[in-house]
Design goal:
The strands form 5 sheets. Strands 16-17-19-20-21-18 form a 6-stranded antiparallel sheet. With 438 residues, it is α+β, with helices and mostly antiparallel strands. The chain is built from 15 helices and 21 strands. α1 crosses α3, α6 packs parallel to α7 and α12 crosses α13. This is CBS domain-containing protein.
Length: 438
Amino acid sequence: MTTKHEQILQYIQNLPIGDKISVRQIAKELGVSEGTAYRAIKDAENKGFVSTIERVGTIRIEQKRKENIERLTFAEIVNIVDGQVLGGKSGLHKTLNKFVIGAMEVEAMMRYTEAGNLLIVGNRMKAQKSALQRGAAVLITGGFDTGDDVKKLADELELPIISTSYDTFTVATLINRAIFDQLIKKEILLVEDILIPIEQTYYLKVNEPIQKWYELNEKYRHTRFPVVTDDLKVEGMVTSKDVISEDRARPLEKVMTKQPITVTLKTSVASASHIMIWEGIELLPVVDDQNRLLGIISRQDVLKSLQTIQRQPHVGETIENLIFNHLHKKETTDGVDVSYEFDVTPQMTNQHGTISYGVLTSTIIESVHRLFRAQKKGEIVVESMSVYYLKPVQIDYDITIRPNILEIGRKFGKVDVEVVSKGMIAAKALIMVQFLDR
């Protein structure tokens, strides 16, 4: 049986793209309280199929897929530039494929403007009207208004015309930053990308006997299964350790591990990997916000996916990418000690012009990663890190990181790391790591 919250979400998803919705309308339409309606609308906004705009309201937009996440809707543009919608509100759900800065004659401007574009222009009504006629939306900078005929045309064509108080340079910077952030998000691997869906998942019911575990084990050769209620809510996990020496007629709910660790579709694969390694879990149930089973992820699939995407080029460059690209192995004369060189660029400094603590620790960890890869130990998870000596390293200085293995076993390793700059020790750290099973 679906909850009121789920019914509201389903209702919103079934609305046509571009429809405007409100808390009061939803509450009246579905006979729920305004509080319930408000929470569901906020959830829908988090899931990406509605967008709320100040002075306009909440509209149904197309839910983005991973492959086109970098494409912004005009509704998102309004929020990014603190804009006011002057006309064409019914087209706010549409996405833009390019923005054009109108800093030339109208005729020249139109050669670069086409359907699906956003023309960024000042108080030039002829250019605004021409852009709308070519199928492009318009963003007016400087806080200017526009003529009633332009607003009417925008409404007829369902193309937004937006006004912002920012100047053209600031607007272009804000939009570029938003697109850049979206590109970075696109590269982050989530559980939903590697999910084994429920249709291909084997699970057991709480009221079934242990005998059912043996039947699934015999048929599919798996030893771990989620245990769910009739409405698929995850209640536990059962493994071979739980059922061994137990009466096969006994209900699974009596032997299962209750309240198992679960993840959601939006959990990053890196986080899921950490949970699995730390807790010694081979399989994790994936649930929705009502704790209902959506599928599973296995430790093997998680590690395989991490190896596949490891060090793939990102369209949007993060600080981690900058660190990776600036860290180079230093050739040593004795051929025994391993060290890495790193140059401190302006992006990596704090407000005082010295290397930020976060960048320094990330550099140390990356050096340890590379050290163990060179030792054929594969991937690691950092268990603990203690920086017990630290001095400022200023901008444009080079540093040398010298990781030294103190202890190494089958599962764990201990490393002492020394950071040197200008011939002086700048930092010392002690790191404990755990090796990921291959």
